[in-house]
Design brief:
Layout lengths: L1 E4 L3 E5 L6 E4 L4 H11 L7 E5 L2 E2 L5 E3 L11 H9 L3 E5 H12 L7 E7 L3 E9 L2 E7 L22 H4 L1 H8 L9 H22 L3 E5 L1 H5 L4 H11 L6 E4 L5 H10 L6 E2 L1
Parallel strand pairs: 1-4, 4-7, 8-11, 10-13, 11-12
Antiparallel strand pairs: 1-2, 2-3, 5-6, 8-9, 9-10
Helix pairs in contact: 1-2, 3-9, 6-8
């Protein structure tokens, strides 16, 4: 079974071909109760994609959009709630596992995944065949020259202030899905291209998949993004794909269950 706990929405895949979609509850205890009610029967194992950094033991280290979850033993509490073994990883890491196993990154030895949703998450995978490591990065909090916007993480100038749905919604005073100005999305594409280029070049990646609600819903983002990437990536070619999976973190949470513990760095 797979669960994706994002900053705004939670999705549950019981493994029967259906997906239960819920609003994520900012209250940790209520979220556990909601998941207990949403899961039919007793699963044999559960992979969980979570919108924040977790430790190898499955404790929540930091979640900018779910502050009430920080410091909580998420894996332990989910195992008690669902009466099943649980693996937990960052949602970007799960998105990466999903796209590499089933989507646009199949066969890539040096690849990354970036999610554009409530926030901006990123992960990379290095290695061939069964010998690999996937790890979460903080590429969403890379500092952008000339950006004086304060981020929820405490830094000034983070890429997430220019791309994250929550940060932009607060600044614009309306949900990002209501913004249809072509000029806005052209500017968004330029900021994204710079962030993707930095991420890919710093890690020596050959391919990057871009997923999340914003990437999936805004088709007008892609032509200016590809043009901006072509202008920037003149030294090293990097293939940038639109994520092939509708919900890569959820698919990756299922892959996580069978991923060797040493294959994921938290």
């Amino acid at each position: 079974m797979a669960v994706d706990i994002g900053g705004t929405h939670t999705r549950v895949d019981p493994g029967d071909g259906t997906v239960v979609r819920l609003r994520t509850d900012p209250d940790y205890e209520r979220q556990l109760a909601m998941l207990r009610d949403a899961v039919p029967g007793t699963p044999t194992a559960v992979g969980v994609s979570f919108g924040g950094r977790v430790t190898a033991a499955g404790d929540v280290r930091v979640s900018l959009h779910l502050r009430g979850y920080e410091g909580r033993p998420l894996r332990h509490d989910l195992e008690s709630t669902l009466d099943a073994p649980v693996r937990v990883a960052h949602d970007a890491t799960c998105g990466l596992l999903g796209e590499h196993a089933l989507g646009s990154l199949r066969g890539a030895d040096r690849c990354g995944y970036v999610t554009l949703s409530t926030g901006v998450g990123a992960a990379l995978r290095l290695g061939a065949g069964g010998h690999f490591v996937a790890l979460t990065t903080e590429a969403g909090h890379q500092l952008v020259a000339g950006n004086d916007l304060r981020c929820g993480c405490g830094q000034t100038g983070c890429l997430e202030t220019l791309l994250g749905g929550a940060a932009l919604g607060r600044r614009l005073g309306r949900p990002l899905e209501d913004v249809d100005d072509p000029g806005f999305w052209q500017g968004y594409a330029r900021h994204l291209a710079g962030g993707l280029a930095n991420f890919a070049l710093a890690a020596g990646l050959d391919a990057v998949a871009v997923g999340g609600a914003i990437a999936a819903r805004r088709a007008e983002l892609w032509p200016p993004l590809r043009a901006a990437l072509a202008e920037r990536l003149t030294y090293q070619a990097v293939r940038v794909h639109r994520a092939a999976l509708d919900d890569a973190p959820l698919a990756g949470a299922r892959v996580l269950v069978d991923t060797p513990p040493g294959g994921v760095l938290h």
